[in-house]
Amino acid sequence: MFVVKLAFCVALPIAQPTPQSPDGWSERELKIIQSLSPSLQAAPLPASKSNRVADNDDAAELGRLLFFEKSLSPNSKVSCATCHDPKFGWSDGKALSEGVGIMDFNAPTVLNAAYTQWQFWDGRADSLWSQALQPIESAIEMNSSRTYVLHQIAANEKLRQAWKLVFGDLPDLTDLARFPIHAFPPKPNPEDPFGVNNQSSDPRHQAWSRMTAADQELINVHFANFGKAIEAFERKLITGPSKFDFFAAGLRGGKAVGDEVFSESAQRGLKLFMGKGQCINCHFGPNLSDGEFHNIGLPSPEGAEPIDQGRPDGIRELRLNQFNGRGKFSDAPSWDDNQHLLYMFYNEHTYGAYKTPSLRNVSRTAPYAHDGRFADLKQMLEFYSNLPGEPLVGHREETLLPLSFSQQNITDLISFLNSLEGERIPARLRAVNIAQ
Ligand code: HEC
Ligand code: HEC
């Protein structure tokens, strides 16, 4: 009897949290906190088997040079960094991104992108290397082409040397009859997968169709290499621990860190995030994202045209993409290494669904949502609070309920989201006993 009573006394404070106190975390909450932040070390990166140079340092250095290289776009004004600028949290601070033209989408950060399988809001790329090929040939992004990029690398001494270190000499591209300055195939059309009606009038497409199959393949092998170097660089863009991570580490060590690291408001925000707010249903794991696709039901004015169908379009494009993990340019094309491609499905519930973004460093990448409609976090949270209107495409996921947050709730959630910035906090604030 005595033993039972003692056990009861010990268990009680854990089972019944008091919301305001730093020790007031239930067992469930403590478990979730540790799952969001298992360690002060960055989580290990998932392997990128389809890219043999994913973890090669020379490839990362080459990728860095290419990422910032404006001459890869024919107007010499646009590089990857135009829209993924370190100054704006590796995004661009704009609602809709602007390259050669204005895009329909908000630029996600590339920080920590290496943790996710699916790239783009609709997940139409299954690796970072194949993702990197698409902005090159998009008319509104860089308006370039695979042959143009390789010609530019060949013409630039520094890039050519950096390339050689990783992939050996570039092939000789000087015969412009064989390797036109601008040539690339049209994007496969999901409505016409065999391209029977694919008679493009674009001279760059026509130049491609005149190349021999062997020359096309040679260009494709090296275009894939270009993407693989960029991926090696992006795998280095991982953030260090945030204030929230120091807080979680403090709990692991049995010591709460002070309010100056993780304020009471942030603590209340975290509680809401894991509890009533239900954010944790989709924003979970060390990257605060399930890496999957949901329709949160962003409303649009009547008569507006949908941008696209979301995830179903992404799946249809990815299946036809010759640079997917199963394709001949992948370094690990077996089904075993590409099980993610087996389990892609869409139905009426995935129309209008977009990828759950990571919330790490989210305070640096306003505006928000796939179309950049929310200028700041307050607007984003007011949307979750009220869930107004109906989406143009598909339907809002039924698990989402309007939660009528108070202004205090919103302030607290924002404090928590602000605590997810991966900057190293000053040493004087780190003077706590932190268990790794
Ligand atoms: C003109 C602006 C622009 C340029 C240039 C650009 N991007 Fe992007 N990037 C975007 C936008 C907008 C999206 C989201 C588009 C979508 O999902 O359809 C995106 C998506 C991405 C993603 C996916 C991130 C995620 O979480 O899904 C990565 C990675 C990325 N870009 C890397 C690059 C690289 C590498 C380059 C250069 C080869 C590049 N971008 C060039 C605007 C740009
Ligand atoms: C049903 C899954 C789901 C739930 C629950 C959910 N989110 Fe999201 N969240 C998403 C998806 C998907 C997007 C992107 C939607 C889009 O742009 O179409 C998103 C976008 C966001 C963004 C914008 C990030 C950016 O970079 O643009 C923030 C911030 C955010 N959510 C925070 C929260 C918070 C806080 C909660 C709880 C109140 C929450 N989410 C609940 C799935 C969810």
Q: What's the short version?
A:
By secondary structure, the chain is an all-alpha fold.
What features would you describe in this structure?
With 436 residues, this protein is mostly helical. The protein is built from 14 helices and 2 strands. The chain has a two-stranded antiparallel sheet. Helix 6 packs across helix 9 and helix 11 crosses helix 14. The model is unreliable at 1-22 and 424-436 (pLDDT under 50). Bound molecules: heme C (2 copies). One heme C binds at residues 273, 277-279, 281-283, 294, 296, 298, 354, 356-357, 359, 362, 365, 368-370, 377, 380-381, 384, 397, 399-400, 413.
H and E order: HHHHHHHHHHHEHEHH
Helix content: 25-40%
**CATH fold assignment of the largest domain:** Cytochrome Bc1 Complex, Chain D, domain 2
* Principal-axes shape call: globular
**CATH architecture verdict of the largest domain:** Orthogonal Bundle
SS strand fraction: under 5%
**Mean pLDDT value:** 89
Radius of gyration, Cα only, in angstroms? Answer: 24 Å
Q: Which strand order spans the largest sheet, edge to edge or round the barrel?
A: 1-2
Q: What's the number of domains?
A: 2
Question: What's the count of strands?
Answer: 2
The computed structural class is mainly alpha
> Ligands bound here?
heme C
Tell me the name of the CATH class of the largest domain. Answer: Mainly Alpha
